[in-house]
């Protein structure tokens, strides 16, 4: 009898208490087998890339060996060699690592900047909101990609750090607009008014009360921004305005396909990088869709 009462109490508590954010996310991934498969593939792929890159000597890899020019896949080169006799496999691993690290860094910087600006403008409104929104509107009218290309061209001593900073200057706008719109709604809820009445500091209300309620949206935005930043980095590197030539990248490997002979007869040079970019983009997209559905479910459940 006692056990039945305990089971009934447990069942009642499970029904009355809404599931946590993690439980909602796991439920969505279990329902969407493709998203779960994509998540596993992404984790295994990224971990494999970072572990394998630790065993590659970049200076040795970048040495030119004309004897191995355009060597096809075989025992000496698993994925063949490029026009300089350099291993495509090693360039693919280091290039993927560089592209992923750059995308993560840009996502982190732009996420922090966009989050802070969005929360502050959405919470305070008024003059602060109008000021930042005019700045954001100005940035949105600019041809971002063209300006990035101009910066890359004219800046002396151009390196990876410079490339990250240039992209970060322009890529925080979308995050700021999204967080601002959500923060405007949250700042008008009863719990915010109650906190103000109790004399709680604005910084505490913004970062300890409003921001946790936007956690699902923030995670989704960061995930999708990561995919977009990988695409932007590889696209600019493909066009020749990305990373320096001495730094391997997925975009620089795909850039070899500009040569008609390489494009048609030497698929091993550019195809692996293209397939890896495709897998990364699709995987991140499916994971992002599952996270978006999780946020919608969490919002409906309150």
Automatic annotation (TrEMBL):
Cellular localisation: Cell membrane
InterPro entries: BP-dependent_transpt_permease, MetI-like, MetI-like_sf, OppC_N
UniProt-listed Pfam families: BPD_transp_1, OppC_N
Signal peptide extent: none
The UniProt record lists the keyword Ion transport: no
SUPFAM superfamilies reported for this sequence: MetI-like (SSF161098)
Membrane-traversing stretches: 34-56, 100-124, 131-154, 160-179, 267-288
Domain of life from the UniProt record: Bacteria
Domain named ABC transmembrane type-1: residues: 96-288
Topology in membrane: Multi-pass membrane protein
Keywords from the named record: Cell membrane, Membrane, Transmembrane, Transmembrane helix, Transport
PANTHER family xrefs: D,D-DIPEPTIDE TRANSPORT SYSTEM PERMEASE PROTEIN DDPC-RELATED, OLIGOPEPTIDE TRANSPORT SYSTEM PERMEASE PROTEIN APPC
Family (UniProt): Belongs to the binding-protein-dependent transport system permease family.
Protein name (Swiss-Prot/TrEMBL): ABC transporter permease
Source organism per UniProt: Viridibacillus soli
């Amino acid at each position: 009898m006692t056990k039945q009462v305990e089971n009934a109490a447990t069942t009642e508590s499970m029904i009355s208490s809404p599931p946590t954010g993690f439980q909602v996310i796991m439920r969505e991934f279990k329902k969407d087998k493709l998203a779960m498969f994509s998540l596993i593939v992404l984790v295994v792929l990224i971990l494999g890339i970072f572990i394998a890159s630790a065993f590659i000597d970049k200076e040795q890899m970048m040495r030119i060996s004309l004897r191995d020019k355009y060597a096809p896949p075989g025992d000496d080169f698993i994925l063949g060699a490029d026009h300089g006799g350099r291993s495509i496999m090693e360039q693919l691993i280091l290039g993927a690592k560089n592209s992923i690290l750059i995308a993560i860094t840009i996502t982190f910087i732009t996420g922090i900047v966009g989050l802070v600006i969005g929360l502050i403008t959405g919470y305070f409104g008024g003059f602060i909101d109008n000021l930042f929104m005019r700045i954001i509107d100005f940035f949105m009218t600019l041809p971002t990609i063209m300006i990035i290309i101009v910066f890359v061209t004219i800046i002396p001593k151009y390196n990876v750090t410079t490339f990250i900073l240039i992209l970060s200057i322009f890529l925080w706008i979308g995050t700021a607009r999204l967080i601002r719109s959500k923060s405007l709604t949250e700042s008008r809820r009863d719990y915010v008014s109650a906190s103000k009445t109790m004399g709680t500091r604005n910084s505490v209300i913004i970062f300890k009360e409003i921001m946790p309620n936007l956690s699902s949206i923030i995670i989704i935005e960061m995930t999708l921004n990561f995919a977009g930043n990988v695409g932007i980095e590889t696209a600019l590197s493909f066009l020749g305005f990305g990373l320096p030539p001495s730094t391997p990248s997925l975009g620089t490997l795909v850039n070899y396909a500009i040569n008609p002979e390489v494009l048609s007869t030497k698929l091993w040079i550019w195809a692996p990088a293209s397939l890896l970019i495709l897998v990364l983009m699709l995987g991140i997209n499916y994971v992002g869709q599952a996270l978006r559905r999780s946020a919608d479910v969490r919002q409906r459940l309150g």
